[in-house]
Every structure is written in C-alpha cells, then in structure tokens.
Amino acid sequence: MDITLAIIAVVAGIIGLIGVIVPVLPGTILxxxxxxxxxxxxxxxxxITELIIWGAIxxxxxxxxxxxxxxxxxxFGATKAGVWGATIGTIVGIFFxxxxxxxxxxxxxxxxxxxxxxxxTEQALKVGFGSMISFIVGSxxxxxxxxxxxxxxxxxxxxxxxxxx
Length: 165
Prior knowledge:
This protein has helices spanning 2-18, 27-39, 48-75, 80-93, 97-116, 121-163. It is an all-alpha fold and 165 residues long.
C-alpha cells in the first residue's frame, strides 16, 4: 500500500506543479493531496502539525490566487471588461506556451478595455500590466508552495523506498 500511496503522491505533486501555470488545475491543493497520501504511509516523516500547517498555507495561497487578480485589477483601474478580458486572455494564452501564459492576461485586459471603450489606450495598457503582474505574483506564490510540498514528497518517498530495502 505504501508504494501505491507514494506513486499517487508523486503524480499529485507533479500535476500540482503543472497547475502553477495551468489555471484550470488546482495546483497547490493537488500538491497538498500528495502530502496527505504520504502521511498515511507506514514510513512517513510528516507530522500532523506539518500537515495542518501546509494545509492552511495551501488554502491561503488558493484563496489569494482568486483575490489577487481582482485586487491588482482594481488598483490599476480596470473595469469589468478588463477583468473579463484578462481571464479570457489567461485561458487562451495557455495554448501558446510560456509567452502566451505570461502575455495572455495583459493582452486580454487591454483588448477588453479597448472594446469597452471607457479607458484611454494608456489606461488600458496600465490595466493590462496590472493583470499580468497579478498573474505573476499568484503563480509565484503557487510555485513556491508547490516546490516546497514537492520537496517534502520526494524526501518522504525516498524514506519509503529505502526502508523497503
């Protein structure tokens, strides 16, 4: 059973890291699920305290990932059209690799604001910049937490496999 849980944990951790840049995947939560799987193995080094702390951090990062775009958009003067444009741009950007993922929120917000017609080009560019910054900050937080969780996963998987030798 330990081997199955270890494999599930590694797969969840990897998919969780992919979820850092793919918005439809709950990256941090998937990485945390990997940690939870390892907690139930017989050779775990993960304590219940660590599990609770990383669970809370994962939820906080997930919530921030939803709050930050609205916050940054508002700070940079976005209208609802800019927010919708940034969201659509983020989703479309996924299909264009890393440049699309980084530029999608920017382009989407600018296009949304220009279609709306309420902001000048300069203001729309400012909103686009804010949308891109919010995506980068949110992804950065998810990447840091996901990488740390993956470290715990790999560390525990090594303990599991060496205890079997």
